[in-house]
Amino acid sequence: MKNRIEEIRKERGIKQEEFAKTMGVSRQTISSLETGKYNPSIFLAHKIAVYFEMTIEEVFIFEEE
Predict the structure, then answer these.
(1) What is the pLDDT of residue 47?
(2) Ranges of H-type helices in 1-65
(3) Are 30 and 19 spatial neighbours (Cβ–Cβ below 8 Å)?
(4) Which pLDDT score, from 0 to 100, does residue 2 have?
(5) Distance between CA 33 and CA 39 in Å, rounded?
(6) Cα atoms found within 13 Å of the Cα of residue 39, Cβ hemisphere only
(7) What is the model's pLDDT at position 1?
(8) CB 59: neighbour CB atoms within 10 A?
(9) Helices 16-23 and 27-34: crossing angle, nearest 10°?
(10) pLDDT score for 40
(11) Residues whose CB falls within 8 Å of the CB of residue 50, separated by 6 or more in sequence, listed in order
(12) Per residue in 16-47, pLDDT tens?
């Protein structure tokens, strides 16, 4: 699953460390999310979308296999 986390985070001037702290995860988790190496739980995906004041679909790109 692809996402726009890095793009949105950088547009808003938020550092990975700051974002990770706000989300209650490690900076490494945010890095893994941004590079597509880790898919978040539905709860974390929702928390990220709410933080950005967007829908999950606006942040995460679901591609059918």
Answers:
(1) 98
(2) 5-11, 16-23, 27-34, 42-51, 56-59
(3) yes
(4) 93
(5) 6
(6) 8
(7) 83
(8) 20
(9) 110
(10) 96
(11) none
(12) 999 999 999 999 999 999 999 999 999 999 99
C-alpha 1/C-alpha 15 separation (Å) is: 22
Q: Which residue has the tokens 């606006």?
A: 58
Cα distances (angstroms) measured from residue 29 to each of 33, 40, 62, 65: 6, 9, 19, 24
Report angle CA 45, 47, 48 to the nearest 5 degrees.
Answer: 65
The CA distance from 27 to 42, in Å, is 19
User: Which backbone phi and psi does 9 adopt, to 5 degrees?
Assistant: -60, -45
Contacts of 64 (CB under 8 A, 6+ apart): none
What's this model's pTM, rounded to 2 decimal places? 0.91
User: What is the C-alpha to C-alpha distance for residues 65 and 50, in angstroms, rounded to an integer?
Assistant: 27
